[in-house]
Amino acid sequence: MIMYLALNIAGIFIFVLLGWLFSHDKKHVAWGSIGIMIVLNIVIAWFLTSFSWGRAIVRGAATGFNQLVTAAFKGINFAFANWVGPTGVNPAPVNFVASALLPILLVVPMFDILTYVGFLPWLIKWVGRGLSFITRQPKFETFFSVEMMFLGNTEALAVSKLQLQRMKPARNLTLAMMSMSCVTASIIASYTQLVPGEYVLTAVPLNCINALIVANLLYPVQVSKEEDTIATLADATEAAPDTNETVPASASAQTTAAVAETPAPAPAAATAIPAPTFADRLRAILPWTKKTDQAAADGSVAEDSSTKVAKPAKQKKEPFFSFLGDSILGAGKLILIITANVIAFVALAALINKLLGLINPQLTLEHILGVFLYIPSLLLGLDPATAWNMAGYMGMKLVTNEFVVMSEVTKTIAHFAPHYKAVLTVFLTSFANFSTIGMVTGCFKGLVDKEKNDLISKNVGRMLLSGILVSLLSAGMVGLFVW
C-alpha cells in the first residue's frame, strides 16, 4: 500500500506539471495561488471523505438545485407530456434535450430575475470577494466555479451572459475551460443510483477548485483591480444611445463589447467636457469599485468645472415583463444552438470510429485514448491490471459520456477495491468529454462576440485537457484518503 500511496502522491504533482507544460504563458503562472488551492482542496477531500456531516452539506445544496429542476419538469410536462413526468419520473426524461437542456427555460429566467432585482450581482460581489481572498483569484471566476458546481456548464454560462460580454476574451476562455469540469444538480441523484453516492458528492466541490487550478495553469490571465468587477443590468442599459432608451440584458454581445471599448461621445456644450471613460461609468454603477483620484485626495489639484467628469444619466429599467420575455426567448435560442453542436460532435466521433474500423475492427477512439491514459491511471495509485481497466473506462467516458460508463460498472462496482471504487467514481463525476466541447462552444456562440469565440475555438485542445486534468486531480486527491 505504501508504494501505491507514494505513486498517488507523485501523480498529483505530475498532473500539475502537465498543466504547466501545456501552459499558454508559463512565466505568469501564479504558483502561490495554485499552492493555496491545492492545499485547500486536499483538506476538503479529507473532510468530505472522513466526516458524514461534511457530505451532508453538499447533499443539501444539491437537493435545493434539484428542486429547481423538478419545477422546470412541470412546465416541460405540460408541453411534452410523453417526454418527462411532472416530477421528472413516470416517465423519466426520454432524451438529453428533456433532461439537460429544456430546464434552461426556467433556470435562465430565474437567475435573470435575480439580476434584475440586483440580488445576483450583490451575491457575486460578496461570495466572490470571500473566495477571491482565500484563493487569490478574480471575484467572478471564483463565484463561477461554485455556480457551475450545481447548475452545470450551459446553465451557469447562460445566467452569466452580461458578465461574459463585459470580460476580455482571455477570461472567457478561462471560463470555457472551467466549464468542462462541472455537473448539473438535476442529475447528481441519477449518478448516486449508479455509483457510490458518497464519492459523487465528494467530487463535486473538488472539481470546483481544481477547475480554477487547471485553468490558471493552462491559460493564466492577468486581471487588474479595475477589471475585477461584477456587471449589472445598469451596465447593459448604458449601451442605449439615448438616455431615455433602455437596452435589455439580452442585448447583443457586439453592442455590449462596443460599449466596453468605446468612450461615450462628449455632450454638446460651448466648453469641451471630457467624455467619461468606461472605468468612470463602471465606478458610477458599482460603488465597491470607486476610486478617488490621488491628486484630488491630496488636495494638490483644485477641482475645476471644465475638467469635471460628466456623470452618466441614470437609466430606466426595462419593464419587467418585456425583460422576462427577452430572457425566455434568449434561453430558447440557446437550447437550439447547444442541441445542434452536440449532435454534430457526437456524430463526428461516430464517423471517426467507422473510419478507424476500416483499418482494424477493434480500433476505436476509446481504445486509442485508453492507451494514452494508462500511465495517468497508474499514477492514481492502481496496480497495472486495474490501471488498464481504469484507462479503458476513462477513454470510453471521454468519447461517449459518464452515464455510459456508470451504467456499465453499476452492477460490479460494489465489488471493486475501495481505492479503485473511489478514484473511478470521482473521475466519472464530471461532464468532461467530446460532446461537452460542443455544448460549451455552442453556448458561447449564443452569448458573446466573434473575437471571444475565435479564441475559444483555437483552444479546444486545452479545453479537453483541462477536463481530463481536473478529473485526474480530483480522483488523485480523494484516493489519498481511501484505501
UniProtKB/TrEMBL annotation:
The keyword Cell membrane applies. Residues 285-479 form the Concentrative nucleoside transporter C-terminal domain. It is found in: Cell membrane. InterPro entries: C_nuclsd_transpt, CNT_C_dom, CNT_N_dom. One of its GO terms (cellular component) is plasma membrane. Residues 238-258 are annotated as: Disordered. It is a multi-pass membrane protein. Residues 10-82 form the Concentrative nucleoside transporter N-terminal domain. The chain crosses the membrane at residues 5-23, 29-53, 65-84, 96-124, 173-193, 334-356, 368-388, 460-482. Its main location: membrane. The keyword Metal-binding does not apply. Belongs to the concentrative nucleoside transporter (CNT) (TC 2.A.41) family. This is Nucleoside transporter. It comes from Scardovia inopinata F0304.
